[in-house]
Design a protein that fits this description.
The chain has 8 helices and 15 strands. With about 325 residues, the protein is an alpha+beta fold. A 6-stranded antiparallel beta sheet has the order 3-4-5-6-12-7, with no helix packed on it. The protein has a 4-stranded antiparallel beta sheet with strand order 9-8-10-11. The chain has a 3-stranded antiparallel beta sheet with strand order 13-14-15.
Length: about 325
């Protein structure tokens, strides 16, 4: 019991003394740089992108809102779910799907991965993707081992009466057309004149038996656009990466330090040009460090070791101190 209390005390101390102001959690998903769900947190190119609603992380762009299934910070990808997207069990028609189309200013930062196939369903012969058909070859193709021909073997096609021996409907264009995002630049069902779509991404090196095993969803690759060096320098000096309004308008990268914001890192108070100080007296968000609270926890650990009878009291005290510290840190970050 004594050892357990000691371990918990050190965990409490660590959480109180070093809390990243911008790292957040929504449900079971960690939201970290370059993303943020708090004002001023993350990369400015990803601002107003993620929202946490009832412990569900949502991704919002011009084409609609998607549920975030996963964020892979090592691979720099984010996996999305569109509730109006078809899969192997259900075909959704009527142009209800979101597709995928982001604002122009966001396109340098993220796009669906090259191994993500979009299978467009029931597109009109007048669709832009079929311009010049049948003389001109349509862009439909197999992507990462996934094709419409395989997809149309799913049981959902029986329910809508669209099952065909192949992927073509008579002499017209294909009933289902698999495309990569790079070939169409935007999946807009209205502009493409399509009734619906499905999307799946590669799970290599796993060998899949068929479309029932495919990973349905939209996997998006994101990039940091040259700000990675700035953020690494900031983190190396115990800062947190974020952004703030620039003096001349727009936004600029900022390093959030203990009690100030810096345009370089937490060890420097001079701007990159040397013309002015890069320190501001109030941070948009800061890494919370409270010397008084940390001192209390050190005392708690010491007494835990020297006065065993008071173990339960000091354990409860540690939890109270923890929640008070987190509340103070949150209030400071909101100023």
């Amino acid at each position: 019991m004594k050892i357990l209390i000691l371990i918990l005390s050190f965990v409490t101390l660590f959480e109180i003394c070093v809390v990243d102001a911008c790292r957040s959690y929504c449900g079971n998903i960690t939201v970290d740089y370059p993303f943020g769900i708090r004002n001023g947190c993350g990369h400015p190119g990803y601002r107003d992108l993620l929202f946490c609603m009832n412990d569900v992380l949502m991704f919002h762009i011009s084409s609609g809102s998607y549920r975030v299934l996963d964020i892979d910070y090592a691979y720099q990808s984010i996996t999305l779910h569109d509730p109006h997207m078809s899969n192997c069990e259900t075909i959704v028609l009527g142009g209800k799907g979101n597709g995928f189309e982001a604002e122009d200013w966001r396109t340098p930062y993220f796009n669906p991965t090259s191994d993500n196939v979009f299978m467009l369903i029931g597109c009109s012969p007048k669709s832009p993707i079929f311009q010049g058909f049948p003389e001109k070859k349509v862009p439909c193709r197999n992507i990462s081992g996934m094709s419409c021909e395989e997809y149309m073997s799913c049981p959902a096609w029986d329910m809508v009466g669209y099952r065909q021996p192949g992927i073509h409907s008579g002499s017209g264009p294909p009933m289902c057309c698999g495309v990569g995002f790079e070939s169409v630049k935007a999946i807009n069902l209205s502009k493409l004149e399509c009734e619906g779509y499905s999307s799946a991404y590669n799970l290599a090196p796993l060998k899949l038996r068929g479309p029932s095993d495919w990973a349905y969803g939209i996997r998006v690759k994101y990039e940091l656009q040259g700000s990675d060096a700035f953020c690494r320098a900031c983190v190396a000096t115990s800062g947190t990466c974020g952004y703030e309004p620039a003096d001349g308008g727009g936004l600029r990268h900022v390093c959030m330090c203990d009690n100030h914001n810096s345009t370089t890192n937490c060890d420097s108070v001079i701007s990159p040009t040397g013309a002015s100080s890069s320190v501001r007296p109030k941070a948009i968000g800061c890494k919370f460090q409270n010397a008084f609270t940390c001192t209390l926890v050190f005392v708690q650990i010491y007494l835990t070791l020297t006065v065993p009878k008071l173990l339960p009291f000091f354990f409860v005290a540690a939890l109270i101190i923890y929640f008070i510290a987190m509340n103070i840190g949150f209030q400071r970050r909101q100023r």
